[in-house]
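Need the bound structure for uridine-diphosphate-N-acetylglucosamine, inputs here:
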Amino acid sequence: MSDRTSLMIVLAAGEGTRMKSATPKVLHEVAGRPLVAHAVAAALAAGADRLAVVVGPGREDVAKAVSKLAPHVTVFTQGERLGTAHAVLAARAALSEPADDVIVLYGDTPLVRPETLKRVRAEIASGSDVVVLGFNAENPMGYGRLLIEDGKLVAIREERDATPEEKAVRWCNSGIMGFAGGNVLSLLDSIGNANTKGEYYLTDAVENAASCGLKARVVAGEEEEFRGVNDRAQLADCEAIWQARRRREVLTAGVTLIAPDTVFFSYDTEIAPDVVIEPNVVFGPGVRIESWARIRAFSHVEGAVVRSGALVGPYARLRPGADIGREAHIGNFVEVKNGLIEAGAKVNHLSYIGDARVGAKTNIGAGTITCNYDGFGKYRTDIGANAFIGSNSALVAPVTIGDGAYVGTGSVITEDVPAEALAIARGRQVVKPERATELKARMKANAGK
Ligand code: UD1
Ligand code: CA
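Answer from helper R.:
Posting the output first, comments after.
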């Protein structure tokens, strides 16, 4: 099929009023990326050579989100919402250039698999003119019904226009349709709006195809793949299905998830085989975990690389730019942001490491903070290899601590510490014998006055 060219059109001009949101529906996210981006990604993975997205008027935000993912996408605006066929025709300029197949999908249907779109393409390649992706609905209410006569698809009837007998049909239109590129424009132009809603229905392409001797076929898929999002509950349903699917893939790929249902992935999370993920871990976008690493319970990881054999958590937070080296340890209540933790280094308890490097095998004591922000600018802390930072130290950036240096507990380090030097920056301890007894007596007397 690689020699065949494909134009894919994503319809994203929906109103989405049931979302009750200031954000357009297709920009709401599943697995950390907008709904429309899921559709676009599926289209690209199914081999779209050209990609068009149809948005509503004034939806530059949708256009921008889409171009970020697929720079070569063409965005069209549907001025008035006059139906799905009308929406596809908003991309007339794209349709006028030749393509072997044209696939129409919806921007609010994020679970469609590329393989399913490829099956639609294959059906067109083997001679069908119109292909409808259909499924057997548990509850067909609201879907267009696929009407079959003598084994042939003859029409799609929308719920509103259906007779009681037609409504009983459970064989439904997913909304995804494919067309042979040669006659798609004339077919779309032949669609009228004589129906209850007065809209131009893309689905009428089936009936019109039959009347001009073109072949219409159904390709069957799973209902789950065609789940659409109209409200927040359906958004949550899609998220749940997406996560369940990904967990299964990750397990199959050789990753241990101790309690799969409690681990949440992003659309782009990369996890190598032989990683162990403990319960209640959440991955934000941009994460890569290498083999033999272990992410312990209740950690939140985003924009980070965790290298082979590293140990993260429990209760760790890795933020964008965290790079945890081989065999390094990040322990409980430790936050790392834009920080390179080199091989074998340990930051085990209650620390913040931001805009910093921690050299190989260095030990950062409990409660150490890199003070990277003065309220105006951000500054770097550079700590060499084999250093030791005593507990509860504050490293005031910009500051450099050399290889093998030793910082005494409770220090506030404001000046560079050379390699192998010892730095102690805290008040000297004073011990006054018997003074506690005197002090207490005085305070007791004062309290009586
Ligand atoms: C549509 C199908 C129906 C199918 C169902 C699957 C038609 C006529 N009906 O019905 O057979 O079972 O999807 O979910 O196609 N859109 C625009 N511009 C418009 C109208 C719609 O961009 O003028 C977009 C919407 O944003 C949405 C999609 O097209 O993403 C479907 O539109 P919608 O009105 O929800 O169609 P349904 O009635 O659900
Ligand atoms: Ca719909």
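Comments: The longest strand covers residues 171-180. Residues 228 surround calcium ion (ligand 2) (CB under 6 Å).
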